[in-house]
Amino acid sequence: MPQTMLAAVLKNFNDLQLLQVPLPEPAADEVVVRIRSCGFCATDYKAIKGIRRNVTFPAIVGHEPSGTVARVGKAVTHFAEGDDVIIQPSGFCGFCSDCRTGNTHYCRHAFVTGGDGPDDVRPGAFAEYMKTRESSVFAKLADISFDAAAITEPLSGAWKGVIHKSQMSPGDDVVVIGVGGIGLLCMMVARAAGAGRLIAVDVSDYALTNALALGAIHAVNPKTSDAKNQIYDILPDGPDLVVEAAGPIEAVNLMVSLLRRGTKWNVFGITTHEKFELDGGLTHFLEARMDASFGTTPLAMTNAIRLMERGLIDTEKIISHRFPLTDIHRAVEVMGSPEHNKVIINP
Length: 347
Prior knowledge:
Elements: E1 4-12, E2 15-22, E3 30-40, H1 42-49, E4 65-72, E5 84-87, E6 90-91, H2 97-100, E7 111-113, E8 120-122, E9 129-133, E10 137-139, H3 146-149, H4 152-165, E11 174-177, H5 181-192, E12 198-201, H6 205-213, E13 218-220, H7 227-234, E14 241-244, H8 249-257, E15 264-267, H9 280-286, E16 289-292, H10 298-309, E17 319-324, H11 328-335, E18 342-346
Parallel strand pairs: 7-8, 11-12, 11-14, 12-13, 14-15, 15-16, 17-18
Antiparallel strand pairs: 1-2, 3-4, 3-9, 3-18, 4-5, 5-10, 6-7
Helix pairs in contact: 4-5, 4-10
């Protein structure tokens, strides 16, 4: 194996450099993976552009990878060199009370490779190689492409939000606000789980066109219509589940306005510290149930892989652009443009 590798190293905000850096060496319980594909998440873009500031430099971002095991530590028992794998970006200790109760994404000793959240942020997958703990690695079947497999982590987040947290039931009428990459995955999970009427809401006609092609029954653009009235024209009794997958506070406010008695609603997309108001008495009488979801778990990753393996969800369908690592600056430009969906980096 070579001694160095090509990586996109973030030296500072708006200072992303393609550099040769040392090849990672695996500890006893770690594997080094030759990265074949990595999804370009909005949080990666926000780190590069300085929109999110909790970044320690130098950094290698990219937290949605798939690839092939290149080296294994001496204590690794479940994977071998040459195995094709999918990587969960978060790692956990397995021993704290949160891990022992199944909430590994709450782990007090968590780390993340190339992402956001824990204090322990390790080099990510916008590089030719990346290392991680063996417990964060999942086998990839041959009939799933590396590009499709790279979308496992966001698909797992969609499954976790729609199914595990909000407990969507077959026949539920579902509204998804924000149908970019993660919103489309939430919508596809809902469709695979037997949603009744599925409504996509977005301010981008490009995004709404994609949503209709992937299973939405109706598309609503709040810029060109009264979104609440239009949704209630379609669903006179109101939605059973509303998923906010957009990010702006306006999307959360629209979600709150759609609630009727018994609606389930999931604050999924907003990650900024903005406030919205609830009428206490109305909230009491509506009995609407609020959930939220962040991160992923081995359970969610496993179920996302099952959805792909069984042909229920084809993540290839949301990919709009592919770039080699050497063209990552062009990928950053596309991430900042309105007409893109999932962008893939192929180191």
